[in-house]
Amino acid sequence: MKNAIGIDIGGTGIKGALVNLKKGELVTERLRFDTPDGGKPESVVELVVKLVKQIDAPKNTPIGICFPAPVKNGVTLSAANVSNEWIGLQAGKLFSKALGAEIVMLNDADAAGVAEIKFGAGQDRKGLVLMCTLGTGIGTALFMNGKLIPNTELGHIEIDGVDYETKAAYSAKARDNLSFEQWAKVLSKYFDRLNRLFFPDLIIIGGGVSKEHESFLHLIESDVEIVAARSKNNAGIIGAAYFAAKHLSKD
Ligand code: BGC
């Protein structure tokens, strides 16, 4: 199997493309729709079907979908930045039925991490690697010697009495009008806590803002090596496609 489709559902956008599985690169233009208001299952499924049609890949191309919640056996287990209707939903089955194809689903940060471990900043890294996506929320993925420990939800760690993603996600920087210097202070506190709980060997920062890593990465104070994701905002798409090919292909 040479290519697979990756779809990345987020709190603000739904993105997708066909991915070359050897290189970990997009082979079609990245398509994007705004996430419909409220992020309800019906309207999200409709847009995913539209996206897959537009990608127009050959029949039986594996499809991987990543989602901003923990996902177990195709069931979405929470809904921090989408409609509560997703909680406990058999979302995998819903997508399969609407697309008329078997699909696999996984958490969005896990997908981004899979891409970085396979093709990007985490390649050949031993020990504990923590992927952290800074977007509408904070997503995390943990890898031990390259093996994913799925569905970690470390964006919701409570610090100073609040669910810390509400303070440290990129959306919070924009909402609170924080400069990169101010935001880096908030992030330093977050990574310090994660370090004292997990002692990771490497932290990879992803999400749209990783494109601007030169503006803030050096401002974060941490004892751990922190680097930017290689695939920037496409990591979710690439990781979802790779995960699907691994779990769905028969060759
Ligand atoms: C969700 C995570 C997700 C992250 C990034 C958090 O609010 O709980 O599952 O990975 O946002 O989208």
Offer a quick outline of the entry:
With 251 residues, this protein is of the alpha/beta class. It has helices at residues 41-55, 91-99, 108-119, 165-168, 170-175, 180-198, 213-216, 235-248, and strands at residues 3-9, 13-20, 25-26, 31-34, 63-67, 71-72, 75-76, 103-107, 128-134, 138-144, 147-149, 158-159, 162-163, 202-206, 225-228. Strands 1, 2, 3, 4, 5 and 8 form a six-stranded mixed β-sheet that branches.
What does this structure look like?
With 251 residues, this protein is α/β, with parallel strands linked by helices. The protein folds into 2 domains: 3-110 and 234-250, 2-Layer Sandwich (Nucleotidyltransferase, domain 5), CATH 3.30.420.40; 124-229, 2-Layer Sandwich (Nucleotidyltransferase, domain 5), CATH 3.30.420.40. Helices cover 33% and strands 26% of the residues. It contains 8 helices and 15 strands. The protein has helices spanning 41-55, 91-99, 108-119, 165-168, 170-175, 180-198, 213-216, 235-248, and strands spanning 3-9, 13-20, 25-26, 31-34, 63-67, 71-72, 75-76, 103-107, 128-134, 138-144, 147-149, 158-159, 162-163, 202-206, 225-228. Strands 1, 2, 3, 4, 5 and 8 form a 6-stranded mixed β-sheet that branches. A hairpin with a 2-residue loop joins strand 10 and strand 11. Helix 1 crosses helix 2 (91-99) and helix 3 packs across helix 8. The chain is globular and about 50 Å long. The mean pLDDT is 95. Residues 68-70, 78, 80-81, 107-109, 133, 135, 137-139, 153, 155, 165 line the site of beta-D-glucopyranose.
